[in-house]
Amino acid sequence: MNKKKEKKKSHIPFRLNLLFLIVFISFSVLILRLGVVQIVYGDDYKREIERTEDVTVNNPVPRGKMYDRTGKVIVDNIPQNAITYTKNAGVKQDDMLKVANKLAVLIEKDLDKVQEGDKRDFWIMKNQKRADKKVSEKEIDKLKENFEGKELDKKIYRLKRDRITEEELNELTAEDLEVLAIYRELSTGYALTPQIVKNRNVTPEEFAVVSENLQLLPGVDTTTDWERYYPFDSTLKSVLGKVTESEEGLPADMLDYYLARDYSRNDRVGKSYIEQQYEEVLHGQKAKVKNVTDKAGKVLETIPITDGKRGRDLVLSIDMELQQATEKIIEEELKKAKNISGTSLLDRANVVIMDPRTGEVLTMAGRQIVKDKETGQEVMQDDALGNISMAYNVGSAVKGATIMTGYNTGAIKPGERYLDTPMKIHQTPVKKSWKPLGVVNDLDALKRSSNVYMFHIAINIGDGKYIPNGTLPLNLKYGFKTMRESFAQYGLGVRTEIDLPNEQIGFKGPAENPGLLLDFSIGQYDTYSNMQLAQYASTIANGGNRMKPHIVKSIHEPLMENHEIGPIVQEISPKVLNRAEGHVEWFERVQEGFKKVAQEPGGTAYSFFGDKDYNPAGKTGTAQAFYDGPDKEEKFGKELHEVINLSFVGYAPADEPEMAIAVIVPWAYDSGKGHNMNLELAERVMDTYFELKKQRQMGNESAKNTGEINERNEDGL
């Protein structure tokens, strides 16, 4: 009995010892595991806990400047004080609202961008409980039958938003709206990308007080921004182009294109003409910084990677002194011609001056009369773009191309004669020149502007034969094809390939009857732009080389000092697009005809250019056309209203051309008194070109002489 009790007593301590052993071994394993975690993997886990992310951000820099060919600055950047906000990745709506409230006390913010939708959203933020009551539980349950998740939330929010009354919106005070205007800028920015809050009319006081309180305004910073500045005001401004505002950012239709090229969504880019065409040159090399953030998206450190560099500069081929003088002449001649003709349709004129040796565009001018929407008064505005964006019937100015087409096709031979008398074709209005000219050859046809001579060329090309009062069967398809292909060699009816976007090539009419081919030969069927006329005039002037017109002369590295032009990166070389067909002596013969137009009695431009010492040559143009201007429907409805277009192409000096000119005056007059605005313009502009050249040569000679005198004085002579 005692033995049994002893055995029982001795068994209990054994179990306790076993239990203690198991507990001891377990703790030992845990301690060993903890040691491994702390000693072996401790640094790895610590790095994981303190894990950060490096995000590289590009900060924009000022765009490149633009200069004219003489070194005058025509597009610059003005530095502006700016207040920015950089949104952290994990920032909450309430945090941004707090910042907006603080900023509203320190700065004034315009409300012009605040829309009604913004007000509704802001009202909901300020009145969450009242907004929730606008949608009942029953309505929510019904929506749940068809929607769920984020889509359901959107539907509910939209109902709340739509049910806010005007009275409730009017509860927002002026202070609320200013906070809203600031909050709107904060919330539309992209994570870790500086967003402009205010960059216009930031007063020194605002800049200083915000700078002093940056520690209380997380994400806010003060910096220097820039804005485009035009020293010559509106001169050539439409051609220079525009840049998007910071709130516009990248154009939606080119978003992928720019993002693929490392642009940020709120970057400002060129959106029209030179600014757009040369965007990759002008936009510069952006500054890069690395934002080090924690897992919550809070910026821990900002590390500069590379400094930014202002965009490269453009030197344009434009001579701004000549450009401004030409614009002034156009304005004066427009006013004078309107008084003479009494027509209300004349509202614009365009002039291009081009170097026929290089294709450099020296002047691209245009002025247009428009009504001021506020005052109702007529004002002049820039219409330089009209030189490439509009096309018109230009009349006899194209006759040089018609003569060359005749030579090349064998339709005429140099010196061949025709009787210029009205042509009567069966069931067709009489086709004639401005007056019967008698027997004329090719040179006379240019000098005196014979339509009938050109008609004979077109008939011969179309393999027809003129019989008075008879029908005129022609191979129209071949005739139009042949003549258009020939005209294209001079730039008429095709892209000139100028370095600007949105160039128009004009209208090509359908080949419906023989009379239209005859009209084509005298410039009264297809339409052409003034830039096409300038390229055509240059091709005649230089003897057959169709030069590519360009408005940018060279690209340069930027310099920070003053307005000096930096080292050249690229010079735009002259480019011959094609060589117009024809023997050298044929071109010389057309050039002789152009010279007769301007310098020989009886020439259609002789009364304007006969006494000039710069040896001019040219061709006048008068075209019967139909008005298709801005007031067409208001004045004439669907009726066709006949008008006269005036044009002129020319060059000088005739023996060694250095400038070619094209002038177009659409809708010059209708039933009113006629005038010669095309020739008035051409004469005054060409006079100005050579007078300006003379002044500069005299100035250079004077400077040279002064330099030599100073040099002698320094040498003690």
TrEMBL record:
Comp. bias intervals (Polar residues): 697-708
Give the record's keywords alphabetically.
Cell membrane, Cell shape, Cell wall biogenesis/degradation, Coiled coil, Membrane, Peptidoglycan synthesis, Transmembrane, Transmembrane helix
Q: Which Gene3D superfamilies match?
A: DD-peptidase/beta-lactamase superfamily, Penicillin-binding protein 2a (Domain 2), Penicillin-binding protein, N-terminal non-catalytic domain, head sub-domain
Q: What is its main location?
A: membrane
Alphabetized InterPro entries for the sequence: Beta-lactam/transpept (IPR050515), Beta-lactam/transpept-like (IPR012338), PBP_dimer (IPR005311), PBP_dimer_sf (IPR036138), PCN-bd_Tpept (IPR001460)
Pathway the protein takes part in: Cell wall biogenesis; peptidoglycan biosynthesis
- The EC number of this protein is 3.4.16.4
In this chain the Penicillin-binding protein dimerisation domain maps to: 60-303
Coiled-coil regions, chain positions: 126-153
Name all Penicillin-binding protein transpeptidase domain ranges. 351-676
Region feature (Disordered): 696-717
Q: How does it sit in the membrane?
A: Single-pass membrane protein
Under the heading Pfam families, the entry gives:
PBP_dimer, Transpeptidase
Localization recorded for this chain is: Cell membrane; Membrane
The similarity annotation says: Belongs to the transpeptidase family.
What is the protein's given name? serine-type D-Ala-D-Ala carboxypeptidase
Please give the organism: Cytobacillus citreus
